[in-house]
Description:
By secondary structure, this protein is mainly α. It folds into two domains: 174 residues, VKOR domain (de novo design (two linked rop proteins), Up-down Bundle), CATH 1.20.1440.130; 149 residues, Glutaredoxin. Helix content is 52%, strand content 6%. The chain is built from eleven helices and six strands. Strands 4-3-5-6 form a four-stranded mixed β-sheet, covered by helices on one side. The protein has a two-stranded antiparallel ribbon with strand order 1-2. β5 and β6 form a beta hairpin. The protein is elongated and about 80 Å long. About 4% of the residues have low confidence.
Amino acid sequence: MRRPAPFLHRFSRPLIGLFAALGVADTAYLTSVKLGGGAAACSSEACNAVLSSPYANILGFPLSLFGLLAYLAMMVMAILPLAISAKSNKKLHSQVQELTWTGLFLGGTAMAVFSGYLMYLLAVVIKSPCPYCIASAIFAAIIFGLVLLGREWEAIGSMITSGLVAGFLTLLVTFGLYSAAGVSITPEPPPSAVETPTTQAIISLEPITVPQRPYGWTITSQSGASEIALAEHLKKTGATMYGGWFCSHCFEQKQLFGREAFKSNIKYVECNEEGKNPQLELCKKEGITGFPTWDVAGKKYPGVQPPEQLAKLSGYTGPQDFRYSKLMPGFSAKPTAPTTKK
């Protein structure tokens, strides 16, 4: 009499599909928050601090978007063989099952390694908890465990080798992408954001710590004559910057101006209720949906704007020896097209 298959062998694929679906819901929500420029529903500012950190983006896209795609792929691979009859189409069912098990193992390994690295970043580098991120890491770990225990694996040596290669490549690509973006991958404190008063150069426009409510981050760059002159012109012409205290891109915008220029002359409107002097009704009235958003001459311009662009948009004709624009990825002095309020 044939022994019945163990419980996990019989139900591993539905369970993997279930936890992958939970991962899809988790990462889809985080992606919508990132793309919408809003704040995540959380009992503290820790979630938004993590989401606004430089580690929350890869190749200009939210990190959660890649997680969403990974969970979707795992869910499809888990349930695909279940849609093929093992009786009427035994050969196809067997082929798809073997192929998807390989994909589940390699994908599960990569996700487990990457999630482990993200947990390291949360604990050692960012030093701020994020329930959504922790939940995603738990889902990835459970999926990996179910993949390992969900069937009888043959050629264990080959499987271990494949797993080690997948994990190594995952870390290599991760470190490469973060390093290319100028983001530290180690817990060592980075160099001072401002080198010296004479060089007046900053290492990065992006924040390297978590924001402190209600102010966000301290501006570390030093303004030059051109930044101060442009800021004074923007103040006279009524230009306004809308943002949120936890928004890392808003901090980049402030870094482009420097302490003196931004604090003295830029009209800034806080659009998050936990920030300093929030003006929620004004932000709603003006149709602000993402941070930062500039209002220049009655037109809205979303996203970080280099000083060169703001100069053109506002009709500024003074000195334009701006110090920090070239630190922006893909810097271009071409004005951004305005948005229209419906």
